[in-house]
Write a structure and sequence with these properties.
alpha/beta; Protocatechuate 4,5-dioxygenase, Chain B; eight-stranded mixed beta sheet; three-stranded mixed beta sheet; 11 helices; about 20% strand
């Protein structure tokens, strides 16, 4: 079984040649607001955005530059924008750059439900794959949708136990954009100093992530009603990396779609956050 690309030609280029050029441009971009290219880190996990590459691609690139070369499998924890429950996909995934094999041995160790329909049109995992293929074409993937139907601590424990049993070099990615601001998203908590307040709003969430505190992060999201779409994948990642011995996280990049467009009527925040042991 093969999961065909759902957003090729929309979120990223539809041909291999154009897609490789697009990713190369993202990897060479320094247009982001926070950039720590001189900081040597060895991440075990990361949070990466999932918008169209013209918007979030340069932010994503800061994560993929850091992924160790000896990684065998990348666990990608996405969300369901369509509202599906927590589940995995056992299919291999195709993009214009070829096919990424699913790590079925690891996936079956998770003990999570299988639902290929939930993954069929979901882009939060798909948009991570071309970057992997460009830089780490020999890796396998473990696609997981994490939803609120299952406690984030329970999901993290299942993934942790599977990682221990698999005995492989594994990297974990949580796929999420940050605040979705503006009338297009029916979220307008402020109307003045939009750029400054969007940055401050997301920084409040990012601070809890950097401190590796899932409970406080989710409380912040609930209290502020922050429109962080991948809040649950982020919470799972935080809980998981603590089990794996993580002690710190770094913000590598943050900006918004409004910074790209120059119009703050509507804006989506993008953050690249790397987690170290």
């Amino acid at each position: 079984m093969l999961r065909k690309p759902a957003v090729a030609g929309r979120f990223y280029a539809g041909s291999e040649r154009e897609l490789r050029a697009q990713i190369k441009a993202c990897l060479g971009s320094h247009s982001n607001n926070h950039h720590q290219k001189d900081k040597a880190i060895k991440p075990i996990a990361a949070i990466s955005p999932h918008a169209g590459y013209q918007f979030s691609g340069p932010c994503q690139a800061q994560i993929y530059k850091q992924i160790p070369k000896d990684i065998q499998t990348v666990i990608i924890i996405g969300l369901s924008h369509q509202g599906y429950s927590t589940c995995i996909s056992l299919q291999d995934w195709q993009t214009p750059m070829g096919i990424l094999k699913a790590d079925n041995k690891l996936l079956q160790l998770l003990g999570l439900p299988i639902d290929e329909q939930a993954h069929q049109y979901e882009h939060s995992i798909e948009v991570q794959l071309p970057f992997l293929q460009y830089l780490r074409e020999d890796v396998k993937i473990a696609p997981i949708i994490a939803s609120a139907d299952m406690n984030y601590k329970e999901i993290a424990e299942k993934i942790y136990q599977a990682i221990k049993k698999a005995s492989k070099k594994i990297f974990i990615i949580a796929s999420s954009d940050f605040t979705h601001y503006g009338p297009d998203y029916q979220y307008v908590p402020f109307t003045e100093d939009k750029k400054k307040k969007i940055y401050e709003f997301d920084q409040g969430a990012i601070d809890h992530i950097i401190n590796l505190n899932a409970q406080e992060f989710l409380a912040y999201v609930q209290q502020t009603e922050a429109t962080i779409c991948g809040r649950y994948p982020i919470a799972v990642l935080i809980e998981l990396v603590k089990k794996l011995g993580a002690k710190r996280a770094h913000l590598l990049s943050y900006y918004t779609s409004a910074d790209v467009l120059g119009d703050y009527t509507n804006a989506v925040g993008y953050a690249a956050i790397a987690v170290e042991e």
